[in-house]
Inverse folding.
RNA sequence: GACUGCUUAGCUCAGUUGGCUAGAGCGUCACAUUGACAUUGUGAAGGUCGGGGGUUCAAGUCCCUCAGCAGUCACCA
């Protein structure tokens, strides 16, 4: 044995060895209890980051359960990640001076496909480097033909049950990315804006002053609203206002949602470009003139057409000011909705989209949680999950991006009706004609992700699905509780009438030393693969877990990884000591009473440790279990027992050495889920390179 | 504004149902040593457990309150 543990070449050899042995090739064995985890599919649009390294929790569970005699399956999958990937790809295009508009739909799709295939290859290699015991033979991709078929079936079922419908309403639209988003994907941004007080002329003479942050939407106004009990305006309700610049007549109406204290208490209503105004227009049966296009430019105003929104605002103000209709302008803090991808302001625009009627699904999902059919760890997230179900609103699943699963819905132009067909229909299912046209849109990525646990297992085989579903644990970051976990429960139960997983285990985010979330744009990321190259995968893995609390955010200083690298070396050297001592001459002499006592003490402590270890593992206290072994191996076994027994061992007392060896090997097994490489490497030193620690059960 | 966390050693964090002198890793200081390991060993210093109040024989742990930080949601004309 080398004096130092050298992870680099050893890890490479062991990864290949494990894979060759097929330890983690899942199969159906009805004699054994199944334990399955579906890997949250990484987006196939870039390399791994530390967030992915947190999946080490899953590897710990899988290896532990395997060594407890379960039949395990850790399913590897990758996500096409619709808009995310298209966004990343467009950035690549931009570097080459191109844009998505330079290609037709099929070409663009094919180009992104190639890009994604390349990334998939990279990610697989990186996960191997981390020692993940995934089943590499059953990889799934969200765009696999049979997965898409499942997604289509689900859409069909939802459609047939009238849980999916098409509606024309306002959507959050990014004019830069060229797609709408669901409410969940919208980001808030605080902005130091301005509040403009505009004087709207009354038909009967005089003015009513409205306060607005968006003067440029004046052209789309259909009413001025005041509170029904506002004494200042009571006499004006029902009066008419003449919109400046376009001389359009609109009414003054009463609306109890108007806040009398805000601004002047009079609000302009622009239904096509404001969510609340849209609702008002529907109850008052008002029209909603669209004055901003999907290209982000003004239209149908007759005044500022073709200008972008900001330019139109300035131009409009200039014109109003010339007419002395700008009363005053105040600084005003406001929160604007921005695109979570490109950061640009989102435009509420009216568009027809597919929606999932969420209430029945969310109510059912909530019942599953409250009935304890799915338990959440850490427990505190249970409440959050229940609230998520309470607050869920209908889900817009239409996206105007090329990269995704095309929605299998067809429009009958003659009957003006939609129908769903999982295969391209030979004729229109409504009118039997030939004019049915497929929806251009693709599904929200999360729509396919929501089906991931059953879509993957069902497409492997009915046996696999039957045996491994519901999966045992869904381990993922708490930040995707709402977009992913909640939706998996809703759609999963709808489609399978079972929960998709029995337990949700949530991990926190890895932050930098300043406590800031790591992100590429902030440049504060630690590259996990760089750490693996420097200190070994075991060191990184253990550092992510050690001294943390499950579900809390963690900070990962490089020092900590170094510390764990040192621990790996300690493990190695304990083995080296025992191994080299075995070579020395063995004399079977009786141990003296002091040494006998020490051995008994060792055995007793070992027993206690094993018991504690399993208790903590059972409670998902992974950090605690790791610390137990760390403390015992290093500070008890190495620092105390070895030192105490050294003299006896040197004089050839075999009982002492074999007792140490026994305790050591048991600890290796317990440590293996955390630090698979070094434990396996030492195991093989003692048992041969064709043997594996994985084949043994943890006592 | 609502909900959920967090605030414990210089730094990063544990502390499970309240119970013996409050722990770990890293760092610091002193000493030891090349005999498995300097990616080492032994020992030490260092904390009024965010402030205040309460319950209890006993509170870092439970309750109230205040402050700071973080996250999620709602509002935002």
């Amino acid at each position: 044995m080398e004096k130092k543990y050298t992870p680099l070449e050893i890890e490479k050899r062991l990864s290949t060895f494990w894979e060759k042995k097929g330890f983690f090739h899942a199969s159906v064995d009805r004699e054994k209890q199944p334990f399955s985890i579906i890997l949250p599919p990484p987006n196939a649009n870039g390399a791994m980051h530390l967030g992915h390294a947190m999946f080490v929790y899953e590897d710990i569970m899988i290896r532990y359960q395997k060594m407890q005699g379960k039949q395990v399956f850790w399913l590897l999958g990758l996500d096409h990640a619709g808009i995310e990937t298209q966004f990343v790809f467009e950035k690549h295009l931009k570097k080459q001076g191109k844009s998505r508009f330079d290609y037709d739909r099929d070409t663009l799709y094919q180009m992104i496909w190639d890009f994604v295939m390349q990334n998939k290859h990279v990610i697989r290699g990186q996960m191997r480097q981390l020692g993940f015991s995934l089943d590499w033979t059953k990889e799934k991709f969200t765009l696999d033909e049979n997965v898409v078929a499942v997604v289509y079936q689900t859409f069909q079922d939802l459609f047939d049950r009238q849980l999916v419908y098409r509606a024309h309403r306002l959507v959050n639209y990014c004019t830069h990315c060229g797609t709408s988003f669901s409410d969940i994907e919208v980001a808030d941004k605080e902005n130091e804006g301005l509040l403009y007080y505009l004087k709207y002329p009354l038909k009967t003479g005089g003015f009513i002053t409205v306060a607005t942050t968006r003067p440029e939407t004046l052209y789309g106004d259909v009413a001025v609203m005041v509170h029904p009990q506002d004494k200042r305006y009571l006499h004006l309700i029902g009066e008419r206002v003449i919109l400046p610049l376009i001389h359009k007549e609109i009414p003054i109406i009463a609306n109890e949602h108007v806040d009398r204290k805000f601004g002047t208490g009079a609000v302009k209503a622009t239904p096509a470009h404001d969510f609340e105004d849209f609702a008002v227009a529907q109850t008052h049966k008002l029209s909603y003139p669209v004055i901003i296009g999907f290209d982000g430019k003004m239209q149908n105003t007759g005044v500022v057409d073709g200008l972008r929104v900001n330019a139109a605002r300035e131009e409009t103000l200039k014109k109003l000011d010339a007419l002395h209709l700008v009363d005053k302008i105040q600084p005003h803090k406001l929160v604007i909705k921005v695109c979570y991808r490109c950061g640009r302001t989102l435009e509420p625009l009216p568009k027809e989209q597919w929606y999932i009627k969420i209430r029945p699904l969310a109510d059912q999902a909530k019942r599953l949680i409250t009935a304890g059919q799915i338990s959440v760890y850490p427990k505190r997230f249970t409440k959050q999950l229940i609230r998520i179900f309470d607050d869920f609103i209908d889900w817009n699943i239409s996206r105007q991006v090329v990269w995704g699963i095309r929605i299998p819905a067809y429009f009958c132009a003659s009957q003006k009706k939609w129908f769903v067909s999982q295969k391209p229909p030979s004729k229109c299912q409504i009118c039997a004609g030939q004019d049915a046209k497929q929806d251009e849109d693709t599904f929200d990525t999360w729509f396919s992700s929501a089906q991931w646990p059953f879509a993957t297992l069902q497409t492997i085989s009915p046996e696999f699905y039957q045996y491994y579903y519901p999966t045992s644990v869904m381990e993922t970051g708490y930040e995707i509780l709402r977009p992913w976990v909640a939706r998996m429960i809703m759609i999963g139960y709808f489609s399978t009438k079972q929960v998709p997983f029995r337990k949700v285990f949530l991990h926190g985010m890895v932050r930098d030393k300043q406590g800031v979330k790591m992100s590429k744009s902030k440049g504060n990321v630690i590259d996990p693969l760089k750490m693996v190259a420097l200190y070994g995968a075991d060191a990184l893995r253990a550092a992510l877990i050690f001294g943390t609390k499950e579900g809390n955010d963690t900070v990962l200083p490089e020092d900590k990884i170094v510390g764990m690298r040192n621990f790996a070396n300690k493990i190695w050297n304990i083995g080296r000591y025992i191994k080299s001592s075995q070579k020395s001459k063995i004399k079977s002499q009786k141990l003296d009473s002091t040494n006998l006592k020490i051995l008994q003490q060792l055995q007793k402590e070992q027993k206690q440790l094993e018991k504690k270890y399993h208790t903590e593992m059972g409670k998902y206290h992974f950090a605690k279990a790791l610390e137990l072994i760390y403390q015992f191996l290093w500070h008890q076994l190495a620092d105390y027992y070895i030192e105490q027994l050294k003299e006896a061992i040197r004089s050839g007392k075999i009982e002492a050495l074999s007792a140490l060896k026994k305790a050591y090997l048991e600890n290796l097994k317990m440590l293996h889920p955390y630090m698979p490489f070094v434990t396996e490497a030492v195991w093989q030193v003692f048992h041969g390179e064709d043997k594996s620690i994985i084949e043994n059960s943890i006592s």
Notes: The CA atoms of residues 348 and 377 of chain A lie 37 Å apart. Residues 553-695 of chain A form a domain with the Isoleucyl-tRNA Synthetase; Domain 1 fold (CATH 1.10.730.10). The mean pLDDT of chain A is 91.
